[in-house]
Write a structure and sequence with these properties.
Structural class: mainly beta
Strand order of the largest sheet: 3-5-6-7-8-9-10-12
CATH class: Mainly Beta
Oligomer: single chain
Radius of gyration: 23 Å
Number of domains: 1
Helix content: 10-25%
Number of helices: 2
Length: 282
Amino acid sequence: MHLKTVWMIVLLFGAGQGFTQIGSDFEKRNTRKKNDSPFSESKNWGWLIWSENASHYRPIGWHVDLGVTYMAGNNSNDEEQDYDLTATGLPGYYLEGGMEHLFRKKNKIVHYFDWGLGVKHFGGQEKYELGDVKDRGSFNFGSAFLRAGIHNVWQISKYNFIDQSIGFNVDYRIYGGKDKQAEGKYLSPLASTNQDKLVGQLHYTLGFGIKMQDGLFIVPTVQTPVLTFLNFTAFNPSHYWFNSRYQPVIFTIKLAWLWPKSGCPKVFDADGERQSEQFQMQ
């Protein structure tokens, strides 16, 4: 992935704003008193993802992400060579915990940001073939990381939304990273070139959100880096192992829940109209 890919991701992120308006126009034909933004103070609370006035929950909460990682391998070091190199990924795990911060004011571009700390594991292998000679080298490593992102939400139905974000992650390898070639057990045409322990990247995340109930959300996501700003080679976001590059892809399921408000919150009926104080106290 190069700078062209980065620009494509940026354009996709911006295009989401246009889709938000289109989705809003569609919804207006099916329900009344709805607001363009899924985070707002609209009276029709039932059609909002979250509202400062109507929700029983504060604009801050926790999230836990569990997932699977994969390295999409590719290389060009065997072009016009007698040998063949085949790079493939191996599955790994992803675990993150952190906080959600929703913006109180209505905004059509950004709706919340989140951050988290966690551990993730990556693995891959490179197959070397030259005539009857065949060999294979593999690598596995785990990194502790800090991640943060800013999110745009495009509501597509009463309880579902598209969640896209641009963020950054800083990873530091805490175990693994050795390979068979470094130990003299893997034949290859060139000496190993392995990723450094410290990596900083910008990434893009796309998710499908489900509002389970007020203040509780589940969001399956896919994440991949778009450029590297620490230990980079022409901003290429892929990792370098052996003689091949491997593009990280992370599939996660996020569970997010907001903190409840103190005291007695406002109560709205199914049509979004505020009910009596006596009803709220029940």
